[in-house]
Specification:
mainly alpha; 0% strand
Amino acid sequence: MENFSLILAIVVITALAFDFTNGFHDTANAMATTISTGAMKPKVAVAMSAVLNLVGAFLSIEVANTISKGLVDESGIQPEVIFAALVGAILWNLVTWLVGLPSSSSHALMGGLIGATIASVGTGAVHGDVLVTKVLIPAVAAPLVAGIAAMFATRLTYKLGQHTSEKAAGKGYRAGQIASAGLVSLAHGTNDAQKTMGIITLALVAGGALAPDSDPPVWVIVSAGMAIALGTYLGGWRIIRTMGKGLTDLQPQQGFAAQTSAATVILASSHLGFSLSTTHSVSGAVMGAGLGRKGGVVRWSTATRMFVAWGLTLPAAALVAALAEWVTSHGTWGTAVVAVFLIASSAAIWVISRREVVDHTNVNDSEEPPGVVTTAIAAVTPPPTGAVAEELAATIPAPAAATAGAETPTGPSTPTPAV
């Protein structure tokens, strides 16, 4: 540890800051459905999620090893490169949090690392096979698998409970939601906290503080777990609103099915070392649960915006990280400029977010506007007929001219036109 330089200390602090944003950015993954269905109070839900995220950080290091040893060639990486990668990831997390879009913190980190590495030493330092097999393929497969599983699980839960009273079924599935939400939180800590462990370990190797191919030290595991737990407790209320109310309206049965399906996919991927996006898994499960209930709908306008954000995550974070790496490559003053830019941008985003505060008191107040399809259907719907039309006619006042003619005592009596 005698080689722990100033730049290395800056990288570690920035990595923990990213871990903190990962926590409040992805709290929605674990607790949005539980909060939206009323199974748990918002503050209690995020507190439980924070504790389980911390516990999950100690369960495995497979994902951390994928990042620190597999994605890029660690022998050609300098600490400044990792710092630039974290800048791109943090800014993308904050921007998507500001607009309330659930995007992948994992892919933001991957994109930042790839962009900064390419800008520093070229494309040869990026292991394309690992990128495809352990990042890109899981990114596409995870929401599909979780969505299909949640859809069938939702149909099964309604079928099994069709002879049970709605009140009893709702109570039972709310209890199940609490358990499944805890499982998702545990899985989130197991998968996402490890990403920061991996990036810190990579920085320590690059800075000479650790030998190549080392596992994350204990202090790295503890600090990463604490950072993501703290961020989780503060709650990313904007994204919780989108995930819980913006995609679909969930009942307790659907929430239980969605969370259980997502947790299963995430835990399996963590065991295999896949750097899976928790956001993709939970979002796919929520949409699958929405389609699984008879009469359920998915707000595709919100889903489309979310899909666009998913597609932009890797390239956007990579571009910002590449620019940051270009500036830091000019020396110490370049690193200082990037650090000041990161702090100033983060502060500006926070100030903008205070214009419309979203917290635990209004997180379930959905204001999602109608989509294009809904608006088009309303525009071409024919006017009502029968009794409804008569009621509407009775509420419409007669034309002013006709009313005046009828009230004139000396004038000719003219019939009032029928409405």
